[in-house]
Amino acid sequence: MKKYTTIGGVALAATLMLTACGGGTPSGPASQKAEEAGGDISKLISVNAKETKDMDQGGTVTLAVGSIGPDFNGFSNVGNSADTSAVLTPVNTAAISSGGIGGCWKLDFNGKAEPNKDFCESVTSEVKDGKQTITIKVNDKATWNDGTPIDVKTFENTWKMLRGEDKSIDIVTAGAYAFVDSVKAGANDKEVIVTTTQPVFPLEGLFFGLIHPAVNTPEIFNTGFAGNMHPEWMAGPFKVENYDTTAKTVTMVPNDKWWGQKPVLDKVIWRQMEPSATIAAFKNGEIDATSGRTLGRYKQLEGTKDADVRRGQRLFAGGLNLNAKRPALTDVAVRKAIFTAVDRKAIRDVRFNGLNWSEESSGSMMLMPFSEYYQDNYPVKESGAEAAKKVLTDAGYTANDKGIMAKDGVPVSFKITNFGDDPTAAATSQTLQKQLQAAGMDVGIDQRGDADFGKVVGSREFDVTISGYTVGPDATDAVKQYYDSTTNENGLGDAELDAEIKRLATIADDTERNKAAMEVEKKHMEKYFSMGTVMNGPEIQFVHKGLANYGPSLFKSLSNVPDWTTLGWEKGAKK
């Protein structure tokens, strides 16, 4: 499941996280560029890797996010945000279907999956007569915090809640669960036998995140996590010690019920903060790391005493997120005109100004340009204001007395929702606004706080946002989430594309399957114009010296922590 993110905010297997677009500078580190297929992606990782023997035992790490909650079910649309995922990963690695770890699976830096033996000791598959049987051997010690065993009941409940059969359950996408026929016990309750109606690939499309058996009704799933973290339904190396809704903090300590590797740290503290507040908080030592992905932030953070700058690649794709269900954007011609009016390079120039980062235009929501499977699917070749006006003219629009393109007396009028108070993010939205205005559209700015991001985007209370999703190493789940007419948030698609999506999940060969997914994206973008990639961008973190195993981590972690059990301080640096 892909998770939402903002361009300024902080993304993986079963569902991708929505994120928003929100550093280096000419006088700072050397210039850096995005890697293409065959490039050296090790240049895009910077975590200050240390063995635990070279670290102090104990200590505290304090980090900030734009929002804490208000909904803590990451499998639901309202809870589907990168911030929620980041906060929950230390305490609920059983459930988090993002970053480098979740449920049965974990990823390496390259995005290759292997069983997460804390929960699933082995996962095997056999295809016979067009049907698939998947056998999962669950760790005997795996247990939810309330003492409930993680066994066949957990896997069966995860399938039933996520398969999409009950439309009242507010899931992001059914993904591969729609193809599961049964989940039953094998030799015992710790052996899970999964049968499918058709082969499902890749295997990590299933159970990259588990749901406690108590979360078994639409009411609990949809609203039971509103303002309630439910620590008893979690399992991870840390546990929630305190969730303070007034102070907007969550404090975590090592989980005495955790059976896996014990964490180095004594405490993890999350603080909800607007982006502007994190700058002073980092410089004053109140938080231990913060993003420097915009020039304004970088310049203010540069020179902070005892701080490192760690640079890499952000696993993000997006920039154009159109809500096709809003009245102003139901006409595909308007959406096509928006895609056509956009000067993507000009927006990137504003967004990355002074960060010593360069990249070519990305053309996929599903894969990074360095992926061996990537292809450019952006559906517009001729762009600009006049080309956009022609799209509208051909669709029957004419300029009214104010110069706004209109049809049947209704002008093309909508707003771009911008989140947070970062000046670069604001300038990025204003640049897009001017490009669309030049094409004869009446476009305003709807300014919201960073903490509103999850609610506004999860509830679809916007026309256009400069936001996008985290990017995974395989396009199979993303193609269903984004482009299947029965699952994508805009409800756009058709039976022919749906059939192609269903078929490609049966392809065992990774190259062939991802190529098929890329072709679906190409056709969908050309026909429906709902999401478009303007940028990927760098991951730039300012980190207090001595913090080990933290920083840009590619697919191993989208919250900059490759392994929460090894996060901590070098010897002599403990806080």
TrEMBL record:
The name of this protein is Peptide/nickel transport system substrate-binding protein
Which Pfam families does this one have?
SBP_bac_5 (PF00496)
Give the classification, highest ranks: Bacteria, Bacillati, Actinomycetota, Actinomycetes, Micrococcales
Q: Which residues form a coiled coil?
A: none
Gene3D superfamilies per UniProt = Dipeptide-binding Protein, Domain 3, Periplasmic binding protein-like II
> Which terms are listed as keywords in the entry?
Signal
- Domain Solute-binding protein family intervals: 125-488
List, alphabetically, the InterPro entries matched: SBP_5, SBP_5_dom
Segment forming the signal sequence? 1-22
